[in-house]
């Protein structure tokens, strides 16, 4: 808790610098995250456990960006003390980037707690964060909605017979990890024996199901998604949104052909910084012809909407052997490390500064809880409000 800042009192008539649209008043914003080296990990975890956690500097940068718009902030670690800390801090809204520590839906645990306490928070809600953590469930939904994704099979025990519709080479990964955890050159398998060996390695080391997919040999893209049908009404930058309410960022291509894990954007490759040996080549804006470029953008938005993701996400797509884009996975809590995380690199390629990214996520989130006065009441879009939400702490404070 040494990073908890002293909370300044926020009076009802505090005036933040004018932005359009405007927050109804200055907010007390809690940034909730798991910090590398500070969050206690399960003792039986794999070697790359905690890889998704954030650095202290990232949290401080998020706090600075939010404070630059006139709000006060406090950092709260996403651990078992959270309910007590929240009761003490009583934030107006939480900027949630928590990965969670335990359980099959760990990225949904903090949103679930916040909904229980009826505290507003940013980005996707409970069910979406639970589904997106589970790549198999996500692919089932996409397949059900007719969206293209590689043929796949989930292995829970590692003894299941191989489905007839899968052909080699295949790719084996933990079903519920991120940051390339459990993925390296050994993930690509060419025969049954190495397939089952790798499946068992995943199940034993990651204590979860193994997802087996057909290997996608083509170009790899990661597509940033931002917006929702009524985003322009509440965004500090309404002009960036298209008629469907989504912003089309430039595409980022990840070329892993000469990386430390050739052909795979795996865990080690994800820890390297630009300029270091073995780092993949990141190309943004990627050189992509039409109609592929629009197909990738639209596919990412469809993938985001299919699981009811809100405001922001990042969708990973690869081309199959016929050049057809296939959805790999969606990150509903995309990394936000300035100059490093894919979403930041993409936005920066379009001259967004870090503050723009953070405030966009904050304002889109806050607007769903009635905390932002729309800039133009006549603007397009159906409001995506959460009617059952009555910010409890806010009411208590006002009723005194
Ligand atoms: N079916 C596949 N065929 C080919 N390569 C794949 C396949 N699935 C995953 N990969 C490779 O492994 C990388 C990591 O996979 P994936 O995006 O599913 O993992 P992740 O750890 O959730 O990633 P993130 O860090 O984006 O959360 C991909 O970026 C891609 O390079
Ligand atoms: Mg990925």
From TrEMBL:
Subcellular location: Cytoplasm
Cross-referenced InterPro entries: ATP-grasp, ATP_grasp_subdomain_1, D-Ala_lig_Van_CS, Dala_Dala_lig_C, PreATP-grasp_dom_sf
Ranges where the ATP-grasp domain occurs: 139-363
Region listing for Disordered, in residue ranges: 1-23
Alphabetical list of Pfam families matching this protein: Dala_Dala_lig_C
GO terms classed as biological process: cell wall organization; peptidoglycan biosynthetic process; regulation of cell shape
Cell wall biogenesis/degradation found in the keyword field: yes
Predominant place of localization: cytoplasm
Record keywords, A-Z: ATP-binding, Cell shape, Cell wall biogenesis/degradation, Cytoplasm, Ligase, Nucleotide-binding, Peptidoglycan synthesis
GO annotation, cellular component aspect: cytoplasm
Gene3D superfamilies the record matches: 3.40.50.20, ATP-grasp fold, A domain, ATP-grasp fold, B domain
PROSITE patterns according to UniProt: ATP_GRASP (PS50975), DALA_DALA_LIGASE_2 (PS00844)
Biased composition (Basic and acidic residues): 1-15
Molecular-function annotations in GO: ATP binding; D-alanine-D-alanine ligase activity; metal ion binding
Similarity annotation: Belongs to the D-alanine--D-alanine ligase family.
PANTHER family: D-ALANINE--D-ALANINE LIGASE, D-ALANINE--D-ALANINE LIGASE B
Protein name in UniProt: ATP-grasp domain-containing protein
Native source organism of the sequence: Leptolinea tardivitalis
Lineage: Bacteria, Bacillati, Chloroflexota, Anaerolineae, Anaerolineales
């Amino acid at each position: 808790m040494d990073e908890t800042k002293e909370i300044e009192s926020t009076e009802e008539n505090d005036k933040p610098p004018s932005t359009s649209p405007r927050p109804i008043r200055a907010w007390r914003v809690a940034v909730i995250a798991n910090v590398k080296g500070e969050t206690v990990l399960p003792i039986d975890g794999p070697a790359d456990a905690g890889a998704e956690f954030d650095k202290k500097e990232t949290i401080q940068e998020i706090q600075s960006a939010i404070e630059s718009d006139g709000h006060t902030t406090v950092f709260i670690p996403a651990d078992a003390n959270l309910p007590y800390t929240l009761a003490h801090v009583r934030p107006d809204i939480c900027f949630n980037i928590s990965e969670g520590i335990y359980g099959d839906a760990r990225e949904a645990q903090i949103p679930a707690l916040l909904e229980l306490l009826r505290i507003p928070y940013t980005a996707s809600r409970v069910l979406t964060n639970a589904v997106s953590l589970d790549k198999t469930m996500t692919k089932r939904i996409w397949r059900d909605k007719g969206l293209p994704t590689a043929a796949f099979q989930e292995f829970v025990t590692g003894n299941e017979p191989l489905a007839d519709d899968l052909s080699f080479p295949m790719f084996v990964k933990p079903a519920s990890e991120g940051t390339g955890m459990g993925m390296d050159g050994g993930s690509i398998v060419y025969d049954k024996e190495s397939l089952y060996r790798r499946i068992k390695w995943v199940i034993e080391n990651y204590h979860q199901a193994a997802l087996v997919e057909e290997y996608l040999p083509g170009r790899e893209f990661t597509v940033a998604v931002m917006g929702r049908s009524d985003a322009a009404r509440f965004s500090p930058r309404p002009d960036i949104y298209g008629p469907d309410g989504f912003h089309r960022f430039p595409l980022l291509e990840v070329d892993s052909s000469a990386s430390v894990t050739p052909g795979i954007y795996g865990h080690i490759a994800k820890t390297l910084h630009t300029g270091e040996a073995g780092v993949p080549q990141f190309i943004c804006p990627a050189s992509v012809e039409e109609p592929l470029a629009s197909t990738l953008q639209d596919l990412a938005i469809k993938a985001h909407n299919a699981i009811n993701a809100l405001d922001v996400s990042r969708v990973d797509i690869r081309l199959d052997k016929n050049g057809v884009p296939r959805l790999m996975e969606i990150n509903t809590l995309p990394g936000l490390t300035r100059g490093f995380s894919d979403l930041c690199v993409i936005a920066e390629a379009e001259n967004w500064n870090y503050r723009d990214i953070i405030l966009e996520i904050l304002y889109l989130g806050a607007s769903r809880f009635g905390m932002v006065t729309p800039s133009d009441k006549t603007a397009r879009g159906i409001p995506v409000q959460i009617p059952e939400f009555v910010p409890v702490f806010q009411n208590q404070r006002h009723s005194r």
